[in-house]
Amino acid sequence: MVTAGVVEAYGTKDITFSGRNRSFSFSQTFLPRGPEPAQTDSGTERFVDGQVYIYTRVHGRLRWAHFPLQVYNNVKIIDPRTLLRVLEPFARFRATGYQVIGGVRLKVLRAADPGRLTRRALLPVVFTSGQPVASLEVWVDQHEVVHRMAFTFRAPARIMLSKPVSKAALRRYLLAGRAVRRAIKNEARYHLRTGKRVPERQFKLAMRRSRQALLGAFQIRRGAQVTTTTVTFSAIGQPQHITAPPHALSYDKFVRLTRHH
Predict the structure, then answer these.
(1) pLDDT digit string (tens) for 66-84?
(2) Which of 123, 128, 150, 228 gets the highest tally of CB atoms within 10 A of its CB?
(3) CATH entry, 2-159+221-258, from 1.25.40, 3.40.50, 3.40.1440, 2.50.20
(4) Rounded Cα distance, 7 and 32, in Å
(5) Full-model pTM
(6) Phi and psi, residue 259, nearest 5°
(7) Dist. CA 12–CA 26, nearest whole Å
């Protein structure tokens, strides 16, 4: 994801299907924005017979845990053997050449009208499906099976740069942040002492000054946000086996083990 020419985030996702069962793993990195440092997140989930299992840390050790109420990250991906027929009425593909990938000669097709795919939920995306589709290419074999696809979303956006405008502006922002934390502590002390809540005027004023200082300390750049995605299909038509992890912790046991950690 690139916003106004600045790389904002990147990552990978791997999904395996076996009927209604799925295995999902991801790794994503969000680069610094304003005062916030870079963040990296990763994880693995399995969805088996309607139940969700999460591979997570318990006392520093990775364990499988059963999460019966977890909302599974349900990414809609159309079967690559029928994908081209589904996309063609909207994309109006044009051949642009051939490319050999993995020893297979593939035809490269480019969508002449990718914008018609916007908000049709036909591309395998999670959070960008409401943005305009700017481009789409697919690589198909002689049987019209899609082996690869690449697409972009493009929409107006803005990003806060990570480099402060000046040391003085950064210092004003840090001081404003301390004022907010003091206001929160003062409210807590007053509530414990009197049982009443402090009028919100002081806290709102501190928050407003902190936001003003933030906007003064870090430049905001406006432009286009371009999200580029490449999808590779493998083991097409080959049976996969996804089973519930053995010895997975029950949700109640997971909560007990992690309650104070």
Answers:
(1) 987 656 566 678 899 999 9
(2) 123
(3) 2.50.20
(4) 10
(5) 0.82
(6) -60, -40
(7) 6
